[in-house]
Amino acid sequence: MSLYFFRISTGRYSGAADQPYEFDDRAAAWTEMTEVCANLLGGIARSMKPNAKWSMELLDENKEPVFRISIVGETVS
Questions:
Q1: Cα–Cα distance between 42 and 45 in angstroms, integer?
Q2: pLDDT at residue 11, rounded to an integer
Q3: Kind plus residue range of the DSSP H or E element containing 31
Q4: Contact in structure between 23 and 2 (CB atoms under 8 Å)
Q5: Phi, psi of 13 (to 5 degrees)
Q6: What angle do CA 25, 7, 64 make, to 5 degrees?
Q7: What would the pLDDT profile of 3-31 be if each residue is shown by its tens digit?
Q8: Domain residues for 58?
Q9: For a surface tag, which of 49, 56, 69, 72 has the fewest beta carbons within 10 Å of its beta carbon?
Q10: Number of structural domains found in the chain
Q11: What is the pLDDT, as a whole number, of residue 1?
């Protein structure tokens, strides 16, 4: 089993977790990350401002990024 940390870039829960999470492998870590993002998505989308970016990263035990999911609100005109 490997240790991973979650890090959120902006908003109420921004920053890296102090407590590691343990997953069997990267596939299990990815599955958990997508589930966490799905649970947060509604609140993030409702409070997002134009031209803002939100992201969640999954860090390895050395706190190096393994996966990133980003949401970007863009003004196009």
A1: 5
A2: 63
A3: helix 26-47
A4: yes
A5: -105, 25
A6: 60
A7: 999 998 876 667 777 899 999 999 999 99
A8: 1-71
A9: 49
A10: 1
A11: 85
The answer as to whether 76 is a domain residue is no
DSSP letter at 20 equals -
CA of residue 63 relative to chain centroid, distance: 13
Q: How many residues does the chain have?
A: 77
**Structure-block tokens of residue 7:** 């890090």
SS3 state at 32: helix
- Please indicate whether residue 13 or residue 75 has the higher confidence score (pLDDT): 75
Structural domain contains residue 7: yes
* DSSP category for residue 11: S
Query: Mean of the per-residue pLDDT values for the chain?
Result: 89
Which residues, 6+ apart, have CB-to-CB distance to 62 below 8 Å?
A: none
Query: The tokens 């990133």 sit on which residue?
Result: 68
Q: Is residue 35 part of a domain?
A: yes
Contact 73, 51 (CB under 8 A): yes
